[in-house]
């Protein structure tokens, strides 16, 4: 049986890219070049991480870490995609998570952070490629690229490393008026099949789902990326943190970190989907 450590090893290599800081509304604040090296030692029983960042007009910043085991706040999927972050949200504490997707020689990572009042206040988009490769970066994501029917398959992993059987997903996104979309998500098999509908206001590259107890926004970002999270977290309401990546015009991945109404992290879901209409 493949282990979490084996999935971690799919991220080995030197990843060249940048850390782009954005406002909660998706406005670019700063872009910093980066090199992240993950190297295995002792027959890959130890992994060394070296992160170098090169802020403009400043000395380089360097971070070094070694791993011989994995934190319980970190989960990997079979592709090498992963998420790490807070295991529990509570009032008056900082909170956030990183979500990372991988496709051949490219990685796309997203860090979503919330302040001590539970308000979404910082977003970092990290775009990387393996050294010695030259895959093109995707254009900025647009709503038109997302409209239509997406059919896929998902696997959910719990923090105790239990993995579900693959289950089907279906996502329909359609424009209902000039400034609003309707989204319908269906998932599961047989008696476990569920459907959820939601509506959002279109505000440029921002989709605001304003009809739920926790208003949620999706930001359409560079490199085909999207960020999905609540604008504010409140006790008693479940929520998700999600990154999406349009890898090709009809192929997309999403990684979803789910929290229950007590603020407890309960699962990580990887969705691979194809546009069919």
From TrEMBL:
<dbReference type="GO" id="GO:0005886">
    <property type="term" value="C:plasma membrane"/>
</dbReference>
<feature type="domain" description="Biogenesis factor required for ATP synthase 1-like C-terminal">
    <location>
        <begin position="137"/>
        <end position="275"/>
    </location>
</feature>
<dbReference type="InterPro" id="IPR048378">
    <property type="entry name" value="BFA1-like_C"/>
</dbReference>
<dbReference type="Pfam" id="PF12204">
    <property type="entry name" value="DUF3598_N"/>
</dbReference>
<dbReference type="GO" id="GO:0000918">
    <property type="term" value="P:division septum site selection"/>
</dbReference>
<feature type="domain" description="DUF3598">
    <location>
        <begin position="1"/>
        <end position="133"/>
    </location>
</feature>
<dbReference type="Pfam" id="PF21053">
    <property type="entry name" value="BFA1_C"/>
</dbReference>
<dbReference type="InterPro" id="IPR012674">
    <property type="entry name" value="Calycin"/>
</dbReference>
<protein>
    <submittedName>
        <fullName>Uncharacterized protein</fullName>
    </submittedName>
</protein>
<dbReference type="InterPro" id="IPR022017">
    <property type="entry name" value="BFA1-like_DUF3598"/>
</dbReference>
